[in-house]
Amino acid sequence: MMKKPLVRYSQKTVLIVEDFAEFARSLRGMMSTMGSKKIDLVYNGEDAIQACKERKYDIILSDYNLGDSKDGQQMLEELIEFDLLKSTTVFVMVTAENTTAMVMGALEYQPDSYLTKPFNGHILKSRLDKAIHKKDVLAPMLRNIRKKKWKDALKECELIEEENPKFRMACERQKLKCLMALRQYDKALELTTKIVNERPIPWAMLGVGEVFFAKKEYERAIDLFTDMTNEFPMVLEGYDWLAKTQRVLGRPIEAQHTLERAIERSPKALKRQKLLGDVAEENDDVDTMTMAFRQAVKYGKNSVFASPDEYVKLTKSIGRQLKGNSDVDRQKLLDEAESVFSKLDSRFKSDAGTQFRSAVAHADFSSITNDQQKVEKYLAAANKYYDRIEEHIGCEESLEITESLKHLGQSELAESILEEAVEQYFDDPKFIEQAKKLTTNKNLIANSQKANKLNNKAIKHFSQKEYTKACEYFGQALEIAPNNVNINLNNVQTLLKRYQSGEKKPEILHKAEELLSNITRLAYSDPRYERYSELSRLTQLMMQSL
Amino acid sequence: MTEKAHTFSTILASTVHDMKNSLGMMLDALNSILSSIPDEQRVKSANHFGVVQYESSRVNNALMQLLAIYKIENEKLPFNPGYHNLYDFIEEQVVGHSPLLDAKGFEVEIDIDDEIELFFDDSLLTLIITNVLGNAIRYANKKIRVTYEHEESHSILINDDGPGYPKSMIDMAGNYLLGINQSTGSTGLGLFFADKVAGMHQHGDKRGKIALENGGPLNGGIFKITIP
Fold first, then answer.
1. Which of A252, A354, A509, B76 is positioned for an S-S bond with A308, CB 3.0–4.6 A?
2. Is A84 within a domain?
3. Alpha helix positions (H), A199-235
4. Contact B83 A199 (CB under 8 A)
């Protein structure tokens, strides 16, 4: 038998996350028997995250079930999302029963090992030995993935697989991630179908469907995800993807049905509940919409992935219930909505954009119940917050706010918000369609279409490597929409290309720098932020070589 | 699933969870008692400790199987197959029993090539293998041998040096519910569960199965689970 390298537990820092004091003590006992000296103990997920901010642990043992606080899986997701783990950290999830309510194997964020209670110190050591060895072997590749160096990661995968056939599947899974990020869909399809043709592994099957989805072959994706939910009814990601695809194909009723099947199996998923709420809204199913957003607010309580969305949408659906139905318990719903608003305001109190959105929604809600005093109070608050907003309001949020303001007779503010949004998001046809219905300013849409045409023209020149021409058209588009982040970034990218392909004039880089410095209202959470920061980095890099 | 069945499943699951926690706490309490008594006395109680640990792991295993069977019947049991290194998998099951194996002076041989990767649901197979090993410790004398055979499908064999399976049990092949016999103390649960879980492993038109035999190099019982 192949000998694994000896793990020196005395050198390893250990974090134990367990709400059951007895069991926590017993875990600590097992670890110190193995020789560990640096063992920290916390009783809930919040404290665990705090501990990980202060120290990078080598080993984390966490119970899946942590009482009322966030569960072990939510905690792991946050730790990964906020980059609080080392590439070599081993995370072991301890579960009470191995027939948990769902299959975790297809989850995006995986612990390194699962252990079912009860177990003894020998089993724990055997598991840790293996997991630490595996993580050490995979670490160089995982480091590249963390830095989003997909090509290097792919090379690393090949090397590791060759030397350690035992870790082939783990490598294949990471390869799929890299290929998807590189948009090499044909290679990704080849990789996943090869695995699936041998054995139906849930993550690989999902991968095949995801590739079809990415290639916009939606019908094939639907077939695949349908098979998936039949063969693995407990792999919930299959339902999520199926619903997503059904929605793209304009079948919201089917999508709702699919999501309901998943939620019946596991209600405790914030993202899934939000999606169900949105689909139910599309289907005018106010009861389901209310229920879904209610659950989303509930399960988001301990999660960093909670957003103002589910709060606002819950109050909207409550408003719709009050409007439509006379035999509902009105006082109970009113109280609920007020409490949701107050939770929303306190949770996101440092964000002026959210405070503004909440005030508008609150005024709108109060108008449903004819509470004129409150309408005025919250409109005044909205006007106060509006001046403090520093970041762009999102596309969906802008539509929602405009609609409410129109409903409240605040046409002037409504139009100015819509104008800003149109300037930012005119390249989104779905958004423009909605905006058209809301605006009274005919020029607004016509202008945005002009800018859109110029932008498209410029992109075409860019793809034909006619960079100077491209810059010219981006410049013209920016005259109509000077604050549009995408066009500004497009222009920067083109300028950098010009510089790289031989036009080594400092003015070009200065121009790029100037365009970037004009982008001041981009939120860190904005989907466009990543591109902005990458282009800023490249510009700085080239400036240094001047 | 009907609402009644759903309620029952929820109660069953939460009760199993609770009972398992109690078992865990009992074991921990015993551990701390053991560590607080003098060495010479501890050696004397080692055997008793082994018994308590062994019996609680049996209760635990039975609870898990019960819950799993209930979920199979209601199509709620997650099936999560993947590739696993067979040697590592078996070694871990043996390690789980190590306190009692050591206390009783058992010798366990794992004769499996280090390179074999099989496709199965490891959490379900754990319940089966742990149970079979547990029974071997109870009925056999000193030796257990785990081997792997590959013909058309893959088989794991667990051979011991005990008295072997009674003929009536071997003859039940495929119909393990008949094994419920209160006078012999056999509940049939273990075999029934093993058979169900083996059958969940399918590949092409082949299905997994279990078989009982007597003999082998250790001249005792042989439990054989085959997965395609």
1. A354
2. yes
3. 202-214, 218-231
4. yes
* CATH code of A336's domain: 1.25.40.10
Check CB contact of A167 with chain B, cutoff 8 Å.
Answer: no
- Among chain B residues, CA nearest to A96: B17
Structural domain ending residue among the three candidates A108, A134, A160:
A134
Across the interface, do B28 and A122 touch by the CB < 8 Å criterion?
Answer: no
Judged by a CB distance cut-off of 8 A, whether residue B206 touches chain A is no
Q: What is the ipTM of this complex?
A: 0.81
Dist. CA A490–CA A496, nearest whole Å: 10
Chain B residues close to A105, C-beta within 8 Å: 80, 82
Give the residue from B23, B70, B83, B109 with the most A CB atoms within 10 Å of its CB, the best one to mutate: B83
Q: Is the CB of A103 less than 8 angstroms away from the CB of B83?
A: no
B77 lies within 8 A of chain A by CB? yes
Q: Please state the separation of Cα A356 from the chain's center in Å.
A: 23
Q: Are A23 and B28 in contact (CB under 8 A)?
A: yes
Q: pLDDT digit of tens for each residue in chain A (546 aa)?
A: 445 568 899 999 999 999 988 889 889 999 999 999 999 999 999 999 999 999 999 999 999 988 877 889 889 989 998 889 999 999 999 987 654 555 565 677 889 998 888 788 889 999 999 999 999 999 999 999 988 899 999 999 999 999 998 899 999 999 999 999 999 999 999 999 999 999 888 899 999 999 999 999 999 999 999 999 998 888 889 999 999 999 999 999 999 999 999 998 878 788 999 999 999 999 999 999 999 999 999 988 878 889 999 999 999 999 999 987 767 788 999 999 999 999 999 999 989 999 999 999 999 999 998 999 999 999 999 999 999 998 899 999 999 999 999 999 999 999 999 999 999 999 888 899 999 999 988 888 999 999 999 999 999 999 999 999 999 999 999 999 999 999 999 999 999 999 998 888 899 999 999 999 989 888 888 889 989 999 999 999 998 887
Our measurement of the distance from residue B35's CA atom to the centroid of its chain's CA atoms, rounded to an integer in Å, reads: 29
Question: Which of A523, A511, A449, A454 lies closest to A485, judged by CA?
Answer: A523
Interface of B with A in 84-103 (CB under 8 A): 85, 87-88, 91-92, 95-96, 98-99
Q: Which of A103, A117, A119 sits opposite B80 (nearest CB)?
A: A103
- Which amino acid, A443? N
What is the biggest distance separating any 2 CA atoms in chain A, rounded to whole angstroms? 79
- The reply to whether residue A234 touches residue B79, judged by beta carbons under 8 angstroms, is yes
Smallest CA–CA distance from B10 into chain A, residue: A101
| Residue A395 domain-assigned (yes or no) | no
* B69 interaction partners in chain A (CB closer than 8 Å): none
For the full predicted model, state whether its pTM sits above 0.95: no
How near does any CA of chain B get to the CA of A301, in Å? 23
Instruction: List strand residue ranges (DSSP E) for A58-189, in order.
Output: 59-63, 90-95, 113-116
Which of A366, A387, A408 represents a domain boundary (last residue)?
Answer: A387
| Nearest one of A546, A417, A539 to A488, comparing CA atoms | A539
Q: How many CB pairs under 8 A join A and B?
A: 104
Mind telling me how many Å the CA of B128 is from chain A's nearest CA?
13
Exposed, middle or buried, A227 (CB in 10 Å: 0-12/13-18/19+)? middle
Question: Minimal Cα distance from B71: which residue of A?
Answer: A99
DSSP state of A412: H
Instruction: Pull the structure tokens for residue B37.
Output: 């008594």
A126 touches chain B (CB under 8 A): yes
Q: Which domain holds residue A323?
A: 267-387
| CATH code for the domain of A102 | 3.40.50.2300
Whether residue A249 lies inside any domain: the answer is no
Number of domains in chain A: 3
Element (H, E) at A176: helix A168-181
Does residue A247 form part of some domain? no
Residues within 8 A of A (CB atoms), B 16-35 only: 16-17, 20-21, 23-25, 27-29, 31
